[in-house]
Design a protein that fits this description.
The chain has 20 helices and 17 strands. By secondary structure, it is an alpha+beta fold. Helix 8 packs antiparallel against helix 13, helix 9 packs antiparallel against helix 12 and helix 10 runs antiparallel to helix 12. The longest helix is centred in the middle third of the chain and has 72 residues. The chain is flat and about 215 Å long. GO terms for molecular function: ATP hydrolysis activity. Pfam families: AAA_23 (PF13476), SbcC_Walker_B (PF13558).
Length: about 1000
């Protein structure tokens, strides 16, 4: 992630709107953020982190507290950041929650937090909106794009003030999270989880099978599998003996049941015989009632013989009464019909008189019908003529319009053709413009690069001269310091000899040579040099040597840069050719002219496409219109002929009609009145004829009905007298005394059937009882009644014995069957458990190794990250060795952590002075900063080198340089310069004054009562 433009408004100490254009600092700049304490240097990093994650770098201030107190109340606190990631530009804008004045009235209202994220096009304009407003959505999207969360961003891309030791002192667990995100090693973690899940599943399955085996034994109330085998061997003969005892008891039970069943059958026969005798006695008690029913049935038979004569007499009397009623009704109807016939005759005479008017009315009706028909034809011809005339005029107008349009299309096509020829000629002339423009733009970039290199060459030459002077000066000072240190050491040694000589005594041995003679002792002839003075001279010598080495390195770096610059200048001069010597403005002008030609070429090409498309469209339109005209011309002629023909027919028909018959509506009304009058006359005549016919028919029918009714009365009277005579004769010959006794003896069919059924049922039941008694007497003639109670007791005893033996056999056999089932289940369970244990031996071992449960407890991902960390530490140690003057190196701790704590990614520092490794926590403040800086730079190198890793092309360092001595500071700046030359942006926040001299490109933060402001200084371009 590389920041491009940062805009802060009413944020932190910035009261107004401040914009930092990082692109103005140059390509991959190394720059200083400088300013007094409290001016807002760290707020720039806060704004960067807030724009990306909605948090400040230290995460100690809430975003709602970042509003500037000096800002105008109407100015909204917001931060906007344009940044580049993997070649794509983005813009993020964040607004924290804040209070702002109400739009109307007094007081304030809460402005909720919001965030927007856009993808930018090549011109830096907003192209695609990725997040419209939601803060959480923007944070999640940015974490996905960058690949780091806020804490990881602060640890690897921003070293905040007082926080630079976090990554250095992080434990294995925290460092594993950061490195896995940076190097995208989550696949190894997924492998660990997959192996752990598989092993756990198999382990749970093994434990489940063990529990299953225990459950099988517990379900069978067995202590072990040996007890199962022993019980099976014991139960097998017991089951066979129990089965045999059951078979014997079953046979005895069957014999006892057979004897009991035979005795029960014999007893039932004796009981049935007694029951039948009792039923017969009860049945004979109904004999007197059955005899009375038979007597009544005999009387009913005599009455049935007289029924025809009685029925005939009743029917004859009923028929006579009906005939007399019909005779009276027919007489009344005849009188009524005679009156109606007379009225119909009178109505017919009246209708006959009006019939004489019909011929005149019908003739008038015919004439009116002919006039109306001709009027309708005339109206239809007029309508057809008007329609035909309108169609003719419309078709003729359309024909003339299309002919005019066809002529216009022809003229447009000719104009387009002329314009196309001109555009194609111009396009051919501009054909080479894009290629020439691309070549000249490339030449312009090369020429600008050449000019920049020339300017840098001049600056580097000046710097080299200054570095040469400084190197000569440092060499002279170092030589002088060498001479002074040597002189001081010699004087110190001389002073030591004179001091030793003062302690010599005559005759006493010399402490140096042991001689007792002292012929020429040393004499103190100058001031004695102390050990402190010697050490001071040595320190001054060492400082001068280091300064000389730094000057030599600086001189060597400048020489390398000048050599590289010269090579680039030579290469660009050869590539530019004659343009290398010409003025830059001429190349600019040439590019502008070619750019205009290229733009004109694109414009001409677009015009050619438009004109060609327009010409093709006109051709298609001309063809369709021409085809349409060929069809229209015959249609127009035909419409004209049709209109003239209809006009002639209309005129002829109009002349054949009289003037008073040319009003169709009046003629229709008159015709309707005539039709109504004729219809009324015809209807009256028909109605009168029909009424008379109906009246005459009804009169004749009524007369006939009266004669028939009179004849039927006479006939019914004769039949009734004859039936009366026959009934009296039959009654005298019967056993009945009078008609009343005859009526009492009659029975209807239902009563007779019911009495007959009672007699037959009695006789049938009596015969059945007598037959059954005879059968039982024959069967039981030589038999006696059995002792059923004794036989029942024997049978019950046999059944109880059988049940006892069956239960004993079932119990033993069920237990044996259960044991066999348990044996089969145990065999299947042991086979499944063996298979699972074999699987667990593979998957469990892989899971334990991959998840760090063996040996040094290092997981697969942590092992991979350890290898990557080793690469990081190699790069970091190279820098730390230089900054610590060869004393410290960063190493990975090999010994595992105590207890169950995760290990494998802990850091130690190797101290070459002591030859031992110790914790990085024991480093001093300055040493910790050097180690943290080295680790951050080494991490940046390695992450950039690994394909698929997160791009760490930006690094911000907030303070920490004040804890370094001059040599360490020079080494740190040299390393940052090397990193910057590798294509990374490095931003440093520091109060150290030496950094101003060594880092000319900087962002100055100025403080005032009205709020802070920023200014970019020393930008290259």
């Amino acid at each position: 992630m590389t920041p491009l433009v940062l805009t802060m408004q009413a944020f932190g100490p910035f009261a107004g709107s401040e914009t930092i254009d990082f692109t103005a600092l140059g390509r991959s700049p190394l720059f200083l953020i400088n300013g007094p304490t409290g001016a807002g240097k760290s707020s720039i990093l806060d704004a960067l982190c807030f724009a990306l994650y909605g948090q400040t770098t230290g995460n100690e201030r809430d975003p709602t507290q970042m509003r500037c107190d000096q800002a105008n109340a109407t100015l909204l606190t917001e931060v906007t950041l344009d940044f580049r990631l993997r070649g794509v530009d983005y813009r993020v804008r964040r607004v924290p929650q804040q209070e702002r004045p109400k739009a109307r009235g007094e007081g304030t209202t809460t402005h909720n937090a919001e965030a927007q994220l856009w993808r930018l096009n090549a011109q830096g304009e907003q192209e695609t909106c990725l997040v419209a407003r939601k803060v959480n959505d923007a944070t999640a999207e940015l974490q996905t794009l960058i690949g780091l969360d806020a804490n990881q961003f602060r640890q690897v891309m921003v070293l905040p003030q007082g926080k630079f030791r976090e990554l250095l002192l992080a434990g294995s667990k925290e460092r594993e999270v950061i490195f896995s995100q940076l190097f995208q090693t989550q696949i190894f973690q997924r492998i660990e989880e997959r192996l752990r899940t598989q092993a756990n599943q198999i382990e749970r399955a093994v434990n489940d099978h063990r529990q299953h085996i225990s459950g099988i034994l517990a379900g069978g109330e067995l202590e072990s599998e040996a007890a199962l085998v022993q019980e099976q061997e014991t139960l097998a003969p017991q089951v066979e003996q129990a089965r045999q005892r059951f078979d014997t008891a079953q046979q005895q039970r069957r014999h006892a049941e057979q004897q009991r069943d035979e005795a029960q059958a014999l007893q039932r026969q004796f009981a049935a015989q007694e029951s039948l005798a009792a039923d017969k006695a009860r049945h004979l008690e109904q004999h007197a009632h059955i005899q009375s029913i038979k007597a009544r049935l005999a009387q009913s038979a005599h009455a049935q013989a007289l029924r025809p004569q009685s029925t005939a007499l009743a029917q004859a009397q009923q028929a006579l009464t009906t005939a007399q009623a019909e005779q009276r009704q027919a007489q009344a109807g005849l009188t009524t019909q005679r009156a109606k016939a007379e009225q119909a005759q009178q109505a017919l005479e009246t209708a006959r008189q009006r019939q004489t008017e019909l011929p005149t009315l019908r003739e008038r009706h015919r004439q009116l019908g002919e006039f109306i028909h001709k009027g309708q034809q005339l109206s239809e011809l007029q309508t057809c003529f008007q329609t035909a005339q309108a169609a003719w005029q419309q078709a003729d107008a359309a024909l003339k319009r299309d002919e005019k349009q066809l002529d216009s299309i022809r003229q447009q096509g000719e104009a387009i053709g002329v314009n196309l020829e001109r555009l194609q000629t111009e396009f051919q002339q501009l054909a080479s413009a894009p290629a020439e423009l691309s070549r000249h733009e490339s030449l312009l970039k090369q020429r600008q690069e050449l000019d920049e290199l020339t300017r840098q060459e001049r600056e580097l030459t000046v710097q080299q001269q200054q570095a040469t002077d400084a190197l000569n000066r440092q060499q002279s000072e170092a030589a002088q310091a060498q001479r002074h240190a040597t002189e001081q050491e010699m004087r110190w040694h001389q002073g030591q000899a004179s001091l030793l000589a003062l302690s010599l005594e005559v005759g006493a041995p010399c402490p140096v040579c042991g001689s007792r003679d002292h012929p020429a002792p040393a004499v103190q002839n100058a001031a004695v040099v102390t050990q402190a003075q010697v050490e001071t001279a040595r320190a001054a010598l060492e400082k001068n040597r280091q300064a000389q080495q730094a000057a030599e390195r600086h001189h060597h770096q400048l020489a390398q840069q000048i050599s590289h610059n010269a090579e680039q200048v030579e290469r660009l001069t050869q590539q530019l050719g004659e343009w290398a010597s010409q003025a830059l403005m001429e190349l600019h002008n040439a590019c502008k002219g070619l750019r205009r030609q290229a733009q004109r070429r694109e414009s001409v090409e677009g015009e050619i496409r438009q004109q060609t498309a327009a010409r093709d469209a006109l051709r298609r339109e001309w063809g369709a219109l021409d085809k349409q005209l060929k069809t229209q011309r015959p249609t127009v002629e035909k419409a004209k002929e049709n209109a003239l023909r209809l006009e002639s027919q209309r005129d002829q028909l109009s002349q054949s009609l009289p003037e008073d018959a040319r009003d169709p509506e009046a003629m229709r009304r008159t015709l309707a009145e005539l039709e109504q009058q004729i219809a009324q006359l015809e209807k009256a005549w028909e109605s009168a004829q029909q009424a008379l016919s109906i009246a005459q028919t009804q009169l004749a029918r009524s007369d006939e009905q009266l004669r028939g009714a009179s004849e039927r009365v006479e006939h019914r009277q004769q039949v009734q007298a004859q039936a009366q005579t026959e009934w009296l004769a039959a009654l005298q010959a019967s056993p009945f005394e009078d008609d009343a006794s005859f009526q009492a003896a009659q029975l209807d069919d239902t009563q007779q059937q019911e009495l007959t059924r009672q007699v037959e049922t009695y006789q049938q039941r009596l015969a059945e009882l007598e037959g059954a008694l005879q059968s039982y007497q024959t069967q039981l003639a030589d038999k006696t009644l059995p002792d059923l109670a004794a036989l029942t007791r024997l049978t019950e005893a046999a059944q109880a014995e059988e049940s006892t033996q069956l239960e004993a056999w079932r119990t033993l056999d069920g237990r044996l069957t259960t044991l066999k089932g348990i044996h089969q289940k145990l065999a299947a369970a042991h086979a499944a458990q063996a298979e699972l244990e074999a699987q667990y031996q593979l998957w469990g071992t892989l899971s334990e190794v991959a998840n760090g449960r063996t040996g040094h407890r290092i997981s697969l991902q942590r092992f991979v990250l350890g290898v990557l960390l080793d690469d990081v530490l190699i790069q970091a140690s190279e820098r730390l060795v230089r900054m610590s003057r060869g004393r410290y190196q960063l190493v990975r701790r090999e010994d595992p952590s105590k207890g169950n704590k995760a290990s494998g990614l802990e850091l130690d520092v190797a101290d070459t002075y002591t030859g031992k490794n110790r914790s990085v926590a024991t480093l001093s403040g300055g040493e910790s900063f050097m180690a943290a800086l080295s680790l951050a730079l080494g991490l940046s190198d390695v992450v950039q080198a690994y394909a698929g890793g997160i791009q760490l092309d930006t690094l911000f360092i907030d303070e920490g340089f004040g804890s370094l001595d001059q040599d360490a500071l020079d080494q740190a700046i040299a390393m940052l310069s090397e990193l910057q030359m590798g294509g990374r942006m490095i931003g440093v926040i520091s109060h150290v004054s030496e950094l101003k001299e060594q880092m000319p490109v900087r962002i100055e933060v100025c403080a005032s009562r009205q709020g802070s402001s920023v200014e970019v200084k020393g930008a290259l371009f």
